[in-house]
Structure formats: structure tokens, C-alpha cells
Amino acid sequence: MWNERYSDAFSAYGTDPNDFLREVAPKLPSGRVLCLAEGEGRNAVFLAKRGHDVTAVDLSEVGLSNAQALAADAGVSIETQVADLAEFDPGEQAWDVIVSIWAHVPAPIRRCLHGACVRALKPGGAFVLEGYTPKQLAAPGRGGPPTAELLMTSQDLRRELEGLIFDRCEEVEREVDEGRFHRGISRTVQVLARRP
Q: Is the Cβ–Cβ distance between 105 and 86 less than 8 Å?
């Protein structure tokens, strides 16, 4: 499904970075960045242009091929890794920043992944997330998964990211304009947190 979605390059979600990531980027430590479910690389390339050493992980070979092309067009380099987040191991204290934008996976996988992300951050490292909440189900066609199991709340994330200090963990309603699949008033949860 994802290879098919990305076959028409950059039409699905565009080439501009996520608004929330753009907002918090000045607050992020420099160094190694891991972007989860990165698709066609718009967030990874944005961070690479800011001087970070970025690795983008996604299930789609087509998406990551597009990401490499986007990076080349921007005059930066990124690493890419094809991986299923259900099996991906981000390591221990390996990353200065982990970015999870629209990384919607089933709740049991998400809980394990988020626990692994806490362990994978270096001390002082930052975790950035934006995802759709269950309230988004009342706005069909505007973005996000169609089932509640793939959505998340601020309470879920505070539990799953135990051990981090939250600068921000809140549910918001905001306008999203990211390609064909994320458009309109959206109910999301935004997180900026740090490993002490």
C-alpha cells in the first residue's frame, strides 16, 4: 500500500516539513536524528538542512528512494533504512533526537516502540511527536487512520514515554495542509519531551 501511495512522488504529503516539527526545531539539540515512518523524507531533509545527521526509517522502499532524491535536490545527504517499526531496534542511547510524525501503528506495537525510543535517546536527547487522536474519527477524509486502534491520546503518550520530561504533551485542533492525505481541521496530539 505505501509503495503504491508513494509511486506518484510527493503528491501524498508534499515536500514541506510538518508544521509542529518546524516550530520546535530551534529547540532541538544538534547531532544524530532518527525519523520514524519518514515516508518521502520531507522532515528528514528539513532537519538535514539545519545541520543534523539524519537517518530516516520507513517500511516503503519507494518512499525512501523519493527521500534520497529530495535530499539530493536540496544539496544534503540522509541515511535511509527500510524497516518495519514492529521489529525495528533503535539501539541504546544512540540518538540526540527522535522524530515521530504521523507514525501510526497498532497500540501494542506503539507501546513497545515508544519504550524503545526512551532507551534510544542520549541523556539530554529530545523526542518530537505529532499524531492523530481518536477525535479525528469525527473528521473523515481529512487525514489519519480510520480506526481508533491506530490513534493516540496525550494520556497514552505520557504512559508510554515514561522516563522523559515533557516540555509539551497536549491535544490540539489545528489546520493541517500536507499534500492530498492530510488536509483541513485536524485533532492531533503534540509532544516535545527530553531524556534527563
A: yes
If phi over 0 gives left and psi between -120 and 50 gives alpha, with beta otherwise, what is residue 144?
A: left
What SS3 state is found at 138? Answer: helix
103 exposed, middle or buried (CB, 10 Å; 0-12, 13-18, 19+)? buried
Rounded to whole angstroms, the Cα distance separating 145 from 155 reads: 19
Q: What is the pLDDT of residues 37-87, one digit of tens each?
A: 999 999 999 999 999 999 999 999 999 999 999 999 999 999 999 999 999
Backbone angles phi, psi at 22, to 5 degrees: -60, -40
Return the amino acid letter for 157. Answer: L
Instruction: Report pLDDT for 145.
Output: 86
Neighbours of 97 (CB within 10 A): 25
